[in-house]
């Protein structure tokens, strides 16, 4: 049985115009999204900025009210809950925010920040038990309990994020929404936080919805990965499978953009033309077709591709899923051409005594098309 099940979730924000602020349009931040998370599983969620990842996470914890759909936690639809019932249910799900400083009250000490959830849900019966629990939580996230009386501004970014994690753990949740928890941190600190989240998951059996831009981080921590584009899920698969053999052209472009340490790597960047379309006026048919290198007309322009299983446990929303994109040009050869052109221009200028600028203009056409190989 799934711990979290989201069905046909929509989050549309009204856009008001005119003197009387009438609603004429809607920003379709999340548009008909469905997925599930099993107990103890980590589901990664990736996509470009503005695709709706954070809005989806906030909608699940009811920080943003969904327009339509269903969110079930342990079989109960939390969208039908309110007041005391919703507050009691919030113990089961928490959120770690992207900004480790903006999400902490600067006027509260660490003890007050972590202990606030204990007070709201009445999880301790005495001051000594409350303090003991706070100290345990700080130790669990790698902080010394002597820091309990300090304020957020006295900590580094990584330490602040640990405080946010301790606050989320205070109510012993079954699900945590991690909204880009390491994107604002240094690389070395990112590794510490990722390892901490993995250790806590093994110890407590917590499920994560891990939102991030970095596909390398998502592959490391996630069992499954969802790719989101313009408010819709375009591909879902196991983490290693989606990195090894992406089916959707957008996923292929994302993976090609991941930096590689190996300077001899021959992988080339797939550069998508244009910008992400407006979520107010999304394109008809496939939402990715204006930027897609393999789009075919009129099918991609007129027919919306449903999310379908293209092979075992791999789902993609593309009419031509599995078609590989050929990266335009050879980046290594282009660099060689540029170097060769510079050398030839310099040599001719030295031999003829002409100004290098005149020689460059004369050879501009050659520099753009010649291949020294």
Secondary structure layout plus pairing:
Blueprint lengths: L3 E14 L4 E16 L4 E5 L6 H8 L7 E6 L2 E2 L5 H7 L3 E4 L13 H11 L6 H14 L16 H13 L5 E5 L7 H18 L2 E5 L3 H7 L2 E6 L2 E7 H6 L4 H8 L42 H4 L5 E4 L2 E3 L14 H22 L3 H7 L1 H6 L4
Parallel strand pairs: 3-8, 3-9, 6-7, 7-8
Antiparallel strand pairs: 1-2, 1-4, 4-5, 9-10, 10-12, 11-12
Helix pairs in contact: 3-4, 3-5, 4-5
Describe the structure.
It is a single chain. The protein starts with a strand and ends with a helix. Residues 329-339 and 363-373 have low confidence and may be disordered. Strand 11 (308-311) and strand 12 (314-316) form a beta hairpin. Helix 4 packs across helix 5 (157-169). It is built from 13 helices and twelve strands. The chain folds into three domains: 4-222, P-loop containing nucleotide triphosphate hydrolases (Rossmann fold, 3-Layer(aba) Sandwich); 234-316, no CATH class; 332-369, no CATH class. The chain is globular, with a radius of gyration of 26 Å. It has an eight-stranded mixed sheet with strand order 6-7-8-3-9-10-12-11, sandwiched between helices. Strands 2-1-4-5 form a four-stranded antiparallel sheet. It has 373 residues and is of the alpha/beta class.
In a nutshell, what does this entry contain?
The protein is α/β, with parallel strands linked by helices and 373 residues long. The protein has helices spanning 53-60, 83-89, 110-120, 127-140, 157-169, 187-204, 215-221, 239-244, 249-256, 299-302, 331-352, 356-362, 364-369, and strands at residues 4-17, 22-37, 42-46, 68-73, 76-77, 93-96, 175-179, 207-211, 224-229, 232-238, 308-311, 314-316.
């Amino acid at each position: 049985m799934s711990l979290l099940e989201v069905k046909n979730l929509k989050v549309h924000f009204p856009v008001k115009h005119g003197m009387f602020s009438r609603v004429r349009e809607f920003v379709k931040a999340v548009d008909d999204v469905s997925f599930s998370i099993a107990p103890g599983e980590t589901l990664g969620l990736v996509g470009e900025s503005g695709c709706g990842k954070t809005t989806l996470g906030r909608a699940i914890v009811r920080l943003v009210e969904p327009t339509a759909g269903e969110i079930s936690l342990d079989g109960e639809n939390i969208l039908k809950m309110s007041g005391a019932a919703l507050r009691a249910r919030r113990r089961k799900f928490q959120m770690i925010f992207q900004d480790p400083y903006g999400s902490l009250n600067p006027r509260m000490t660490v003890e007050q920040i972590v202990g606030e959830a204990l007070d709201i849900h009445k999880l301790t019966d005495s001051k000594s038990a409350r303090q003991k629990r706070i100290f345990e939580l700080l130790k669990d996230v790698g902080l010394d309990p002597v820091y309990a009386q300090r304020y957020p501004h006295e900590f580094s970014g990584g330490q602040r994020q640990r405080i946010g994690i301790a606050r989320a753990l205070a109510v012993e949740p079954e699900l945590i929404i991690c909204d880009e928890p390491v994107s604002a941190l240094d690389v070395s600190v990112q590794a510490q936080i990722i390892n901490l989240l993995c250790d806590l998951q093994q110890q407590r059996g917590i499920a994560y919805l891990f939102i991030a831009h970095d596909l390398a981080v998502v592959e490391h921590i996630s069992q499954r990965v969802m790719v989101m584009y313009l408010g819709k899920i375009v591909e879902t698969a196991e983490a290693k499978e989606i990195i090894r053999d992406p089916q959707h052209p957008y996923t292929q472009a994302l993976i090609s953009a991941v930096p590689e340490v190996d300077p001899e790597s021959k992988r080339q960047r797939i550069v998508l033309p244009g910008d992400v379309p407006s979520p107010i006026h999304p394109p008809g048919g496939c939402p990715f077709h204006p930027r897609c290198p393999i789009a075919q007309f009129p099918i991609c322009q007129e027919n919306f591709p449903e999310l379908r299983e293209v092979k075992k446990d791999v789902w993609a929303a593309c009419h031509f899923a599995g078609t590989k994109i050929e990266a335009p040009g050879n980046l290594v050869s282009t660099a060689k051409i540029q170097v060769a052109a510079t050398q030839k221009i310099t040599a001719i200028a030295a031999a003829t005594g002409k100004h290098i600028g005149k020689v460059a203009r004369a050879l501009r056409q050659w520099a753009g098309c010649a291949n020294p190989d």
